[in-house]
Structure formats: structure tokens, C-alpha cells
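Researcher: Next sequence.
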Amino acid sequence: MTVDLWMLVAAVALNFALILFAATPGLIKDPKWGLGNRDKRMELPAWALRADRTAQNMKENLPIFAAIVLVAHVSGSANELSAWGSQLFVVARIAYSGAYIAGIPGLRTALWATAVVGMFMVGSSLF
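Model: Next structure:
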């Protein structure tokens, strides 16, 4: 399996971990809420709300990253640049998640932009 595909697997694992992490504070605070329909918003600490937004942002970025990686792989365009780009994406997304949950806005934005650069690197291997 190529580095690009391994990084896609890592990104999917990160996505799943973020979903679980974002859900955990509500489940701990009120298990009935977690098992119910969640019709009402629960009051959670700021870091927990940021964790939820981090998970949402990953859900928005993962399909784009996955599509680019899969097209590069299927077309035979995956190369050293796409490998570096996919690794940059995953490392930046891990760091982004930590910065966002910790509430470090400038760093969070810079890391998001770094992950986008990683996606462009993978995408540029197609041309």
C-alpha cells in the first residue's frame, strides 16, 4: 500500500477519534442524553464545543482529501510529492485538532492552512 493510502487510513482514524472525543463529554455528563434523541442542546465547557467543531471540520475536509488521494492512486499519479503532501495533511490535521481544542486561534488557522497545502501537493501530482 502506498504512503498516500496509509495517510488516508490515518486520516479516517483521526476522524473517528475526533467524533468519539467530541461525543464523550456529553455522554459523561448525562448518559441519558447520550442514549436519547438529543433534542435539546446540552451546556458543555468551551473545550468540548471546540472538540465538536474540530470533528465537524474534519468531516468537511476528509472527503476532499480522500477523493484527491484515491484519484492520484487509481490514475497512477501518486508519487513522492503526493506522499509528502498526504503526510503533511495528516500531521497538520492532528496538530490542528490539538490547537483548536486547546483554544489557540492563530496556530489553529496556520495549521489548517498547512493541511490545505498538503491537499494541494497531493492534487498537483495529478498534473
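Model: Residues 76 and 126 are 9 Å apart (CA to CA). The chain is about 80% helix and 0% strand.
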